Amino acid sequence: MIIDVHGHYTTAPKALEAWRNRQIAGITDPAARPQVAELVITDDELRESIEANQLKQMKARGSDLTIFSPRASFMAHHIGDFQVSSTWAAICNELCARVSQLYPDHFIPAAMLPQSPGVDPKTCLPEIDRCVREYGAVAVNLNPDPSGGHWTSPPLYDRHWYPIYERLVEHDVPAMIHVSTSCNPSFHTTGAHYINADTTAFMQLIQGDLFKDFPTLRFVIPHGGGAAPYHWGRYRGLAQELKKPPLTQHLLDNVFFDTCVYHQPGIDLLATVIPAANILFASEMIGAVRGVDPETGHNYDDTKRYIEASTGLTPAQKQQVYEGNARRVYPRLAAALEKRGK
Amino acid sequence: MIIDVHGHYTTAPKALEAWRNRQIAGITDPAARPQVAELVITDDELRESIEANQLKQMKARGSDLTIFSPRASFMAHHIGDFQVSSTWAAICNELCARVSQLYPDHFIPAAMLPQSPGVDPKTCLPEIDRCVREYGAVAVNLNPDPSGGHWTSPPLYDRHWYPIYERLVEHDVPAMIHVSTSCNPSFHTTGAHYINADTTAFMQLIQGDLFKDFPTLRFVIPHGGGAAPYHWGRYRGLAQELKKPPLTQHLLDNVFFDTCVYHQPGIDLLATVIPAANILFASEMIGAVRGVDPETGHNYDDTKRYIEASTGLTPAQKQQVYEGNARRVYPRLAAALEKRGK
């Protein structure tokens, strides 16, 4: 089985975006504020949006199951207050849950959180509980910068975030560290902010001792870990200067990298530098980079081709990357699969 | 000849830091403000700080000449106003010029700029002129984020920066895009802010069309280009989505990457992905990562070892990386060397 741990619902029916635009207008004009019930998306519309897109590509490329969460760039936690984020998160999470119910063999949900800049992360706990218990969410996406590119929250090792970590540990679900759209003109959303956030999060984890307090907490750093694997020597050296244990001991029981790296040499580096046990197959399809690479004739984000071609991974390690690691890092995914005899 | 294009004066005599601390105290307490003349550093003190450190390592490692600029993390453009930055830049640039005069075969200066957040970059022009004309500076370090981690300046393609570009073109000197210390607790200075800045700058250059306006302007992106080479497929794909020409055409006549990547697989990736003509040898020694890699027994920042061991570069390409490219990218360096018959 090939499990893609990183897919977003980037193809949701247009009604969702239209409702969101009305919600945003309602922040300054309460009369314009829409009711949640005004958003009606039928199962057929969900099917159409999935079958013509993600599911079609999954079948074409040969992946089986996607951990499916709301569109990352649309989380936009910087918009409005907690109430706005809370309503929006509930809607988006429900849609991903419905898709997963329609295609239980192909999608399983992960939740976005109703984060809001300057608001206590404790406020996210009810949505975590709801998504895990009612929807069977196997992970959450945690935004280390709900300000959208201004980086006003404390680092991830700060106690500020502990209420969320406690709840994740309780439910035994990992967090993918994933920012949303950038409202800072310096940072292109998918070309700078996403990759910077991955790098920043990884360095924050080096600086702290978070996993001493939470030995079973697990983080997935997406987009191949940002710059971390390419600069692995720098990070090993900085950990050393900060008097931390070697990275393998300090972080690699708890930190995992996905394979959203869109060319062969990048995947080869990842496979060379990072232990296979810490690499999770992912494509973020349909996502930031949708084109066809003229150098290969295949989609940039068809990452399975790079794994297949990678000489740095044995067949057994590829199996780990495709499936084994995901079952270990996402125990609720493993349990859901076992329940279905898979 | 082996030219290291990226060295900072990180080992300046302690009197420099003491003077800077008094200058900073003087921002809020004008009575405490020191005179420039109160900073006295003798040639012997300069020699001691260089011979026991950079020069010793250069000889041990086998590099000949370093393009030498003020300590990057100490530029701290976010401190004080333009006047503070201006005085500080003048002092630091003079010290690098003096080191270069003491060791003309081993050091040649690059200038820091007296940037200050929110201040018109035009104010940097006199210092550029002075350093090029009086000190023979062959490059400048341009900070894309003088706020120190808050990223309040317009992107590099914005006309905001054009006065500096015009002057660089006039003098035919390249800019290394290099941030300074981070005062944002989210960003570790050398582990996140530096690398993020490289990635951010590269993506900004993809977004813009800067080199249409300045076809002879040249930028060096340090630290191996941040995350760019590792995510080269992503950047090729994003350029394609933005309807830009292929990266080789769009940027690679004007953008160069240094080799400050502190492990073998990182350098191997760089050499695989980036044309040899765009790679410049550098170590940033003595800099962010000063330790010995227990996996190799050598300093992390002894980057020459990785180039030597790289199978992705032919001997002729290594010669380009070590010397030929630097002469091309830094024409004033080439001229200075030729003048000395080198």
Account of the protein in words:
The structure is a homodimer of 342-residue chains. Chain A has 342 residues and is α/β, with parallel strands linked by helices. Chain A has helices at 14-28, 43-51, 54-61, 72-75, 82-102, 125-135, 162-171, 189-207, 210-213, 232-241, 247-250, 264-273, 303-309, 315-329, 331-339; strands at residues 3-9, 65-70, 107-109, 111-112, 140-142, 175-177, 219-221, 255-258, 279-280, 292-293, 298-299. In chain A, the strands form 3 sheets. Chain A has a 6-stranded parallel beta sheet. Chain A has a 3-stranded parallel beta sheet with strand order 1-2-3. In chain A, strand 5, helix 7 (162-171) and strand 6 (175-177) form a beta-alpha-beta unit. The interface between A and B is large, with 59 and 59 residues.
Percent strand of chain A: 5-15%
Mean pLDDT of chain A: 98
What general form of chain A does the structure show?
globular
Order of helices and strands of chain A: EHHHEHHEEHEHEHHEHHEHEEEHHH
How many helices of chain A? The count is 15
What structural class results from the helix and strand content of chain A? alpha/beta
| Alpha-carbon Rg of chain A, integer | 19 Å
> What oligomeric state do these chains adopt?
homodimer
Q: Largest interface, counted with CB-CB under 8 A?
A: A-B, 59 and 59 residues
Q: Uncertain runs of chain A with pLDDT below 50, 5 residues or more?
A: none
Major β-sheet annotation of chain A: 6 strands, parallel
